[in-house]
Amino acid sequence: MKVPAAAIHFPEEDRGWILARIGECLESGRLTLGPNGAAFEEAFAQLCQVRYAVAVNSGTSALEIILRTIGVEGREVVVPTNTFYATAGAVLHAGGRIRFADCEPESFALDVASLRAALGPQTAAVILVHIGGIITPRIDEIRAMCDAAGVPLVEDAAHAHGCLLNGKSAGSFGRAAAFSFYPTKVMTSGEGGMIVTNDEAIYREAIVYRDQGKEGFATNFHVRLGYNWRMSEPHAVIGLAQLRRLGEFTARRAEVAAVYDAGLPGLAPRVAAVQPPPGSLSSYYKYMVLLSGVDRAALKSVLREEFGVALSGEVYEIPCHLQPVFADVNHGPLPKAEDLCARHVCLPVSAKMTVDDARYVLESLEAAMAKVEAPAKTARS
To answer: Is residue 220 in some structural domain?
Structure first.
């Protein structure tokens, strides 16, 4: 690939630092719940403008633990259907029932009207997903609706490391938030996740849940139905190194996005970029583009095979309510999400891309669209 869909970036200096710190872990024998994990938690809490952070082994675990601490068992959790399986799966694993809601095209996030219709006496929580690193401009309205209904708002911030809206950080809008450090994310720890919150009760419960439900690290007195959700010290070391670079990573992604912003209007109305709202800082985990009258599968194939440009995975190709695993979940019509999922692509973005790479992507996109549209025009004539 001339331009891969995504790329993990570990500068040489960081690789040396990581290996040295992991060597210290091996020498000391402290491989879990040690000083590196604590340092990672403290630094990430500061990033998110919150009091507490709890490192765990995945973003999925982070969500499930939050839902368990809230107490969703036997009750409904509102989940936007345009999200990754893990968001909805965490609800079921925590004992809750899923209530899927629709999504809006401005940010691909939870649709306010659909949320309003979904809220009811059985609602235990609402999950808001920051798709592609965009915080919806309607987040204050969503939070006000949740507050009025007495329902906790939970942020799935797996895409939103370092994102801001009007100076407020992703992870600080709701009762608690879950981040993922999977290798495809803006920053990674290899595998891992983080719970962030200002709620001391959630923080203390999360510490118990992540370590097999034990009352304390040094005891075998189990007070919750926990699990092995710990983050290892080597994973925390990798996360610390990446967190130190997060500002650089997002700045480079913003440079790539600026090239796309400048060039895509020339391809209108066949394409339209999904833009972060005014007053926001996006991580640009994804650069989402809505297609109009363009065969998505054909476009992706031509870009890959003829131009060496790989588009990253959609967010998401199939909404959750149409996934076979959730076939038994009741929902109403969710037409906005179905439309969004069916006709968008994500242009490649990474901290290793250059401005020239982004320009090449735009040139390739225009040429590929011409190739895809030519057979369609011939068929119509």
So the answer is: yes
Residues of the domain holding 255: 247-380
Provide the domain count of the chain. 2
Neighbours of 297 (CB within 10 A): 8
127 found inside a domain? yes
Quote the pTM value. Answer: 0.96
Look at residue 5 and tell me if it is in a domain.
no
Q: Please say whether the beta carbons of 273 and 286 come within 8 A.
A: no
**Is the pLDDT confidence value at 109 over 70?**
yes
Shared domain check, 251 and 185: no
Measured on CA atoms in the order 296, 301, 303, 309, is the torsion positive or negative? Answer: positive
Please return the burial class of 254, using the count of CB atoms within 10 Å of its CB with bins 0-12, 13-18 and 19+.
middle
pLDDT in tens, 21-74: 999 999 999 999 999 999 999 999 999 999 999 999 999 999 999 999 999 999
Distances (CA, A) of 315 to 27, 82, 128, 172, 347: 42, 7, 14, 23, 12
Q: Which one, of 8, 7, 3, 9, lies nearest residue 360 by Cα? A: 3
Q: Rounded distance, CA 62 to CA 64, Å?
A: 6
